[in-house]
Amino acid sequence: MRRIVWLLALLPVLAAFVVAGCGGGGGETSGGTGGGETGASGEPIKIGASLPLTGDFSEPGVAAQQGYQIWADQVNKAGGLLGRPVTVTVKDDQSDQNVVVTDYNALIQQEKVDLLLGTFSSLLNLPASAVAERNRMLYVEPAGGSPEMFSRGFKYLFFAQQATAEHQADLFSQWAAGLPADQKPKTAAYVIADDPFGGPVAEGIQSQLEAAGVQTVYSKTYPPETTNFDAIANAVASKQPDVIAQGSAGLADGVGFDRALIKVGYSPKQLFQASTPSFADQFSNAVGLDNTEGIFYAVSYHVDAPTPGNTDFLAAYRAKFNTDPPEDAADAYAAAQVLQAAVTAVGSIDDQEALADWLRANSVDTILGTLSWDDTGAPEQAFLLAQWQSGDEEIVLPEDAATSDTIVNPKPPWKK
Amino acid sequence: MATGGGPSLPPVPPTAVTQLIQTIILGLLIGGVYALLASGLTLIFGVMDVINVAQGALLILAAFFAWTLWNEAGIDPLIGVVITTPAMFLLGFAMYKLTVQWLSGAPASMSVLLTFALALVIEGSMGLAWSTTYHAATPGYVDESYRLGQFYFPKAQVYGCGVAVGVLVLLYVMLNHTWLGRSIRALSENVQSARLVGVNVRRVAALTFAIGVATTGAGGSIISVLYPFLPGSHYQWISRLLGIIVLGGMGSLPGAVVGALGLGVAETMTATYISPRWATAVPYIVIMVVLLARPQGIMGAKLREDVVV
User: So what's the pLDDT on residue B29?
Assistant: First the structure.
């Protein structure tokens, strides 16, 4: 009996530990700067978002927080939004679908924020956008290009990138299908994450290349939390495909697959990966700079892009974080620009429906270029096709946005 | 346009047979590592009827230790085993003295509750200390392979498997050829008789628990090289480890080795021939099938809750 009493006495102590542990991860951070720097005065406009600052999507989540921060700093320096300072409150959803719902409900009901900004990855934006829709709040998301997002008839949802997931790799598919007969790929393998964004990217390539007569020799789905890619890479290599397209969910699964391909010693003629190669240094450090040569990905943003406002964003980001902005930070900044454009044009934050109507009827200049939306909130532009060349990320298509005039083809073998 | 690209290796498409052999090689290499990871769990259960659900969390904790040694001091994780193993031994001893020893005599299900709570505490603490992002130690050999004819052997897996086998052999020698080992085995067979022949039951139980936890030192160090991990990774590992010891027979060390090799091959075969999507379900399917068809496992002596001591 004494032992049971002991155990019972221990339980609250343990519980306290667990709460403390989770609290560290789930804490709230106030990401914005208050007003009062210059010009902006009066009651601040409260903007709320929840981002995956920890967990599987922490890389893009932290980058997005930086993008929101830069935007808020700039707006406050330039006199605020509608003359009022802005504050951005960022909660941490821990990459968890349940937590993100709790967070957005809390932002709307308890903290009574005036405006919302979206979170990262389709996985989290799917439930989060439903909370916003139910509360009739405008929801501009910096990521979340899954076709599922836009099949629900939402009226307050807008995606602040160029295109939805199934069209992310359009330029790659068109380029590969249009190669001269002696270079055109004959076979392709698709390695698809069970993820609402990464999956459709690879499926989009598969349907377009199949239509162009490229034979599918491998197409299988893996759980995004997979860490052991040796069996998958071995199975893919045994088919010797010309093209390998991976619909990866994030950084870890794409790097894991590349490493497994290096270990098996198979290098395809063309390698396309969703998301993973866009993680800049984190990607090149993980797979080795020499091994990045020739890897394709689609991207929404490039630091050298001649888009309106990009030089200001770049200067501010470099000054604050001492490095070049990752794509995800730029996407978040662009989402905030879209929100800002709607609020400025409508001249009020009281009628969220008017903000949404305005976005449906107009286009907005962002650092990603000019964006416009169809009735479902899906964007109507095209992603840039990027490729790692000599250790740098280059835009190769479309030609008018290209930063390099060559395309490395075929991909050279792995360096070791 | 660059030249000289395209498929570099293998020079000829592998046949169905060579692919099957390669798949089994990959499965056995990873199975060897699984064997070490499961050995501590099965040892602790065999001797004291404690199902240590925290074993997965301790494994990830050791992986974080190994990663820190590699990141801060440049110590190769597979050499860092000589530091992480004693560290985990001490932690295991402290865990036993502070919590687990109060379980003695309580049903095995109580141990699941206690150790699950410990797992949550460890997971939360790791989140605070290292943040909940992916970590991976990447010494130079992580993406290199040895080649033998048409087959390849990833170096990290070969080294990891080598360290695992080394530690398992040490464990086996210790259990069979030392006085402590004999006491541990006596304790696992019959506590009362062991006490009668002069075994200090409390001391041996504490040491057994500590040794069981110490195996996660080597195991976690190997994991840090093989796979990216984050604090939440322990759920996947503990379910895999439970699958292994249920398959091999709970409490049996040779059973854990057989179960581990079997599960490693089963996962790799599933990922290759059925779908990677099903590979993560393999441990759960194994647990269900074994409990239905042969509840004592392949080499198990005990029937879970039916044990009457």
Answer: 94
Rounded distance, CA A377 to CA A151, Å? 10
pTM here? Answer: 0.78
Closest to B53 in 3D by CA, of B40, B63, B65? B40
B130, B132, B223, B230, best to mutate vs chain A, most A CBs in 10 Å:
B132
Q: How many CB pairs under 8 A join A and B?
A: 186
Q: What are the residues whose beta carbons fall under 8 Å from the beta carbon of B157, sequence distance 6 or more? A: A230, B26, B29, B30, B33, B226
Quote the percentage of chain A above a pLDDT of 90. Answer: 72
Residues of chain A with Cβ-Cβ distance to B233 below 8 Å are: 227
B9: which chain A residues are within 8 Å (Cβ-Cβ)? 264-266
Task: Quote the CA–CA distance of A204 and A167 in Å, as a whole number.
Answer: 6
Q: Which run of H or of E encompasses A337?
A: helix A327-346
For the stretch A290-329, pLDDT in tens is 999 999 999 999 888 888 899 999 999 999 999 889 889 9
Closest CA to A371 of A145, A120, A173: A145
Chain B positions touching A292 (Cβ under 8 A) are none
Provide ipTM, 2 decimals. Answer: 0.80
Q: Contacts of residue A54 in chain B, CB cutoff 8 Å?
A: 127, 131-133
CA distance B163 to B174: 16
Run of H or E residues at A193: strand A187-193
Helices (H), A82-136: 97-109, 122-134
Closest CA to B55 of B166, B210, B269, B251: B210
Residues of A numbered 44-73 whose beta carbons fall under 8 angstroms of chain B's beta carbons: which are they? 54-56, 58-59
